[in-house]
Specification:
By secondary structure, this protein is of the alpha/beta class. It is built from 12 helices and 7 strands. The longest helix is centred in the N-terminal third of the chain and has 19 residues, at 3-21.
Length: 283
């Protein structure tokens, strides 16, 4: 969980405590408020100390419980402000993968320069339709979400039109492991590797591969994308983090540039892709 998100959650907790302590009818103890709301006392403690994320219903109940229904809009605005930075897969995938892809398409369309780092898969902007289909199916199985695979694939393929627009630049870094990961059948991975070979040399794409044997200045952690100098999208198992603070963007760009020092480009990158393609013949 991001530090910024946790700080915002703790600040909301302090505001909730302040409202409890200054209730119009007199100060309420945590136990009194819990009884009034029909909650376990531990929930009061967790919300006030930033140990649990409130829901809108929680905030409405709190405002009513302390006799300050008028502050609900303020509390809910605080919640939406920091909740937008951590987008849980449970909420995002409630209607399937297509809406998530549509959100990405809007942000990518606003961008001129994109930096991406992926340690285990080929970046979505460079995926073939067949490869993307298997990625979506794997995640739908994991999350138990709606299978709108074909619609999601079409949305992701539309995003790739960005690569053919003048003035755009996609700087992609991929760990060599992604070239060998059989998240899909070997025949699908072969087609994906052929696609990567064809991408090298495009004037809108700079593709770097970090060899498995390369010396690394920092660990190869989870993937992330930096859109211009305004937004970072980092993916974890439970959620996506959308970070727009200048310090956070600068940190991720610094990580990307540090990883880049271990990458190879051009013919050397092409040789790694072709070696991975040849290795598929024995599988």
């Amino acid at each position: 969980m991001s530090t910024d998100f946790q700080q915002a959650r703790e600040a909301l907790g302090l505001r909730l405590r302040e409202l409890r302590m200054s209730a119009p009818g007199g100060r309420l103890t945590g136990t009194q408020l819990a009884q009034r709301l029909g909650w376990p006392h531990s929930k009061i403690y967790k919300l006030e100390n930033g140990r649990q994320t409130a829901t809108s219903d929680d905030l409405r109940a709190w405002a009513g419980g302390v006799g300050r229904r008028d502050v609900f809009d303020e509390l809910d605005a605080r919640l939406k402000g920091f909740e937008s930075r951590i987008r849980s897969w449970r909420r995002q995938l409630a209607a399937g993968h297509r809406p998530v892809q549509d959100s990405w398409n809007l942000e990518v369309g606003r961008s001129q320069t994109i930096y991406a780092w992926e340690e285990s898969v080929v970046p979505g902007m460079l995926q073939t339709a067949d490869y993307a289909r298997h990625i979506f199916l794997r995640y739908a199985d994991l999350q138990g979400s709606v299978r709108d695979t074909d619609a999601a694939v079409r949305a992701r393929m539309r995003r790739q039109e960005w690569l053919y627009e003048a003035g755009r630049k996609f700087h992609a870094l991929v760990w060599e492991a992604a070239l060998h990961a059989l998240i899909c059948p070997p025949s699908v991975l072969a087609g994906q590797l052929d696609r990567l070979v064809g991408i090298i040399g495009m004037d809108t794409v700079e593709l770097g591969i970090i060899p498995l044997g390369a010396a690394l200045k920092i660990p190869a952690a989870n993937g992330f994308w930096v859109l211009d100098d305004r937004l970072v999208i980092a993916e974890d198992w439970h959620a996506e983090l959308w970070l727009d603070e200048a310090d956070s963007v600068a940190t991720y760009l610094r990580v990307w540039n540090t990883l880049r020092e271990s990458a190879v480009y051009g013919t050397d990158a092409q040789n790694l892709i072709c070696a991975a393609r040849r290795a598929l013949r024995s599988r």
